């Protein structure tokens, strides 16, 4: 009887306090989503339908679906179409919805390490102002890569109420990865760019970004990331989500589905010809084998890896040969790294400003001889933090990354065997991004950083530990 009364009171409390803030903020998300859809030059009706779809998802508390939509908007609308800020507004609004509609069944939580986050947010203000030479850089760096990282990470901690929600998030993110993979494959095979933008096409026509070295007659596919290296990093990270789902699932039909996803992601990764992405994948596979839940999961994963390698060598021998030739040729990244180190030595506390334009102009006096052409970033996220924002920001970022990974590892250690494979896949994905960021600006590229912080927020969520403790108590 008491239980029934408690349930009734909870229902009354939710009905009084939740609907109006929920509907108001959902309307805000709908407006932003409608604006995002509007850039497709679609009709007003399509924009309204898309906005209402987001509202329905929010009201039904499908936060994982909305979070994945935010990642997609971050890539296509914010980055490819250069409408920066849409995804951040959506993420902040969704976080507020979660706050105002919290309940025992849908708990609210704050991320751990708020002091570190506060230091990161404060220390990055001056370098962001110093580097705000263009509107694009002003909107990209501090709002998205600094403040946006905090919001997306917090959103991930709230979404991950249990491993079932993480599983659903990984499933949806895998679908996004497959769609981008299909787009990449079609771009490479047919030479046509679906859902392209004329201004981006004009930019790519004036660059050699999609070509391998002069001696290698092959093109590289960047898809909506534009740069093939960013595209390769995306696939390197995303590969581990269907891999974890494949190993964890007991259903033959689901295993077949996840296997098909991986078999589409791998060729797409190959068509980017990204050396750094392949190195990161190899390291990530070792990490996944270590953190797979059970011994049989490790054997199953190792068996699949061998089969996948054989399939790739059999089906794409020419592309594999080109990738190996490309890997053997010299790379100018060493010169870019040396330039970054020289800038850090000259400006250790504040850097030269967080912005591509600022780096392009202010790095020239410090350009190393090994760097042949001017660059707008040092092709390394950690050197980018140091050179653009100074060592205090770099050290704070590394501390944040280390602390949140430690929280994720602690949740993994406390999880049951069946959940460890799923969490291990997420850890491998984050570590892959971390490793790949030594060869490209992964953690400092808005769409990739948002993806990494969302996954890391889920893995390190305090709600996972509380849910596990509750399950043990009921047992």
Summary tags:
mainly alpha, 475 residues
Quick overview of this protein structure:
With 475 residues, this protein is an all-alpha fold. Helix content is 74%, strand content 0%.
Summed up, the domain count is 2
What's the pLDDT, averaged over the residues?
84
Work out the number of β strands. 0
- Gap between N and C termini, in Å? 23 Å
Shape: globular
- What structural class results from the helix and strand content? mainly alpha
What does this structure look like?
Helix content is about 75%, strand content about 0%. With about 475 residues, it is an all-alpha fold. The chain folds into two domains: about 110 residues, no CATH class; about 300 residues, no CATH class. The radius of gyration is 22 Å and the shape is globular. The two termini are about 25 Å apart. The N terminus is likely disordered.
């Amino acid at each position: 009887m008491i239980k029934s009364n408690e349930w009734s009171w909870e229902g009354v409390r939710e009905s009084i306090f939740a609907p109006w803030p929920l509907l108001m903020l959902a309307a805000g998300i709908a407006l932003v989503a409608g604006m995002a859809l509007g850039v497709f030059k679609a009709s007003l009706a399509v924009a309204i339908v898309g906005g209402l779809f987001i509202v329905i998802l929010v009201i039904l508390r499908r936060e994982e679906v909305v979070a994945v939509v935010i990642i997609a908007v971050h890539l296509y609308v914010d980055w490819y179409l250069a409408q920066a800020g849409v995804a951040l507004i959506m993420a902040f609004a969704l976080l507020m919805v979660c706050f105002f509609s919290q309940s025992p069944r849908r708990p609210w939580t704050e991320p751990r390490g708020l002091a570190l986050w506060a230091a990161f947010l404060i220390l990055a203000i001056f370098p962001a102002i110093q580097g705000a030479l263009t509107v694009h850089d002003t909107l990209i760096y501090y709002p998205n890569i600094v403040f946006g990282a905090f919001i997306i990470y917090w959103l991930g901690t709230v979404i991950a109420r249990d491993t079932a929600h993480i599983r659903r998030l990984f499933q949806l993110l895998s679908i996004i990865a497959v769609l981008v993979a299909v787009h990449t494959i079609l771009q490479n095979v047919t030479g046509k760019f679906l859902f392209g933008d004329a201004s981006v096409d004009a930019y790519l026509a004036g660059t050699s970004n999609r070509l391998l070295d002069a001696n290698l007659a092959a093109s590289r596919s960047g898809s909506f990331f534009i740069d093939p290296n960013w595209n390769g990093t995306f696939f390197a990270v995303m590969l581990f989500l269907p891999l974890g789902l494949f190993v964890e699932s007991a259903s033959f039909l689901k295993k077949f589905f996840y296997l098909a996803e991986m078999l589409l992601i791998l060729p797409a990764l190959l068509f980017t010809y990204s050396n750094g992405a392949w190195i990161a994948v190899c390291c990530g596979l070792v990490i996944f084998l270590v953190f797979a839940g059970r011994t049989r999961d490790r054997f199953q994963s190792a068996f699949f890896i061998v089969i996948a390698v054989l399939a790739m060598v059999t089906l794409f021998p020419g592309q594999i040969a080109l990738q190996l030739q490309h890997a053997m040729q010299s790379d100018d990244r060493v010169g870019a790294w040396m330039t970054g180190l020289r800038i850090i030595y000259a400006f250790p506390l504040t850097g030269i400003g967080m912005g591509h334009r600022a780096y392009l102009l202010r790095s020239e006096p410090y350009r190393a001889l090994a760097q042949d052409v001017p660059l707008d970033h040092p092709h390394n996220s950690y050197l980018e933090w140091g050179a653009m924002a100074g060592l205090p920001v770099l050290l704070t970022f590394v501390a944040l990354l280390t602390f949140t990974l430690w929280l994720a590892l602690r949740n993994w250690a406390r999880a049951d065997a069946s959940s460890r494979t799923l969490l291990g896949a997420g850890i491998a994905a984050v570590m892959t991004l971390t490793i790949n960021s030594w060869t490209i600006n992964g953690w400092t590229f808005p769409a990739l950083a948002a993806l990494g912080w969302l996954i890391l927020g889920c893995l390190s969520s305090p709600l996972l530990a509380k849910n596990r403790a509750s399950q043990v108590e009921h047992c």
